[in-house]
């Protein structure tokens, strides 16, 4: 894909001015991956959270691993805004307060790892982390189907129970919150890939649909805001990243609109296996 050409163009270009030159001289394949990644970010925020992992893997194929993490964070924040507006009254504030301390610990550990890791190591970590999270997701859903639990209902297209995450009980223990919160914080700081862990936890808490979507939207908005100063301090968000994101934000919004339109039309039981397979295919080149 000659991604290094795009990287050199981005590094050489100031934040304001030569952006049209970057667009016209960048390799077509690289820009295609960037735009598709932005579309998938928008889609993930309004309909299909699992799609984020595909966008993460695609972006890391085009940009250096650390820079891709910074660009993806800005894209996720731009997608968070319409999501939290749509579900502004549906978040479980009690659960958010309980989860955030563990998530903050995971984010801090992830930031320290980012500071020490080389770009090559980061690329492999992103790939392996995505694969591990997929395996965990498949294993959890397989057990849920055998037991007839909430994961099985979600995978089969059934509605979650009417429990309110704060009072219902699988996965609500302090230990479960600490483990899931810390893992979500680390994986989202290192690879912007905390979605699978968090989704599994919220499914275990038996949220109804709107509470699930609202709590997820607000959770990641707060987590992404927490990550922002760490990413700036580590130098993975800079003027060139802002310039690139400014170009890609319209694609994020288009993806969010498309997700809103498609949300009620695609059965989860059909789409989930497709997302898993595509994510594995996208992650494998990163670990090669």
Concise synopsis of the structure shown:
78% of the residues lie in helices and 0% in strands. The chain is built from 13 helices and no strands.
Written description of the protein model:
By secondary structure, the protein is mostly helical. Helices cover about 80% and strands about 0% of the residues. The protein contains 13 helices and no strands. It has helices at about 5-10, 20-25, 30-45, 50-60, 65-85, 95-115, 120-145, 150-155, 175-190, 195-205, 210-235, 240-260, 270-285. Helix 7 runs antiparallel to helix 13. The longest helix is centred in the middle third of the chain and has 29 residues, at about 120-145. It is globular. The relative contact order is 0.20. Residues about 1-25 and about 150-165 have low confidence and may be disordered. It holds the Pfam family TauE. It is found in: Cell membrane. It comes from Actinomyces timonensis. Keywords: Cell membrane, Membrane, Transmembrane, Transmembrane helix, Transport. InterPro entries: TM_pro_TauE-like, TSUP.
Secondary structural class: mainly alpha
How would you state the average pLDDT, rounded? Answer: 75
Structure annotation, total helices: 13
How far is it from the N-terminal to the C-terminal residue, by CA? 16 Å
Over all CA atoms, what is the radius of gyration? Answer: 18 Å
Low-pLDDT segments, ≥5 res: 1-25, 150-165
Query: What does the largest sheet look like?
Result: none
Element string (H = helix, E = strand): HHHHHHHHHHHHH
Shape descriptor reads globular
Q: How many extended strands?
A: 0
* Relative helix content: over 70%
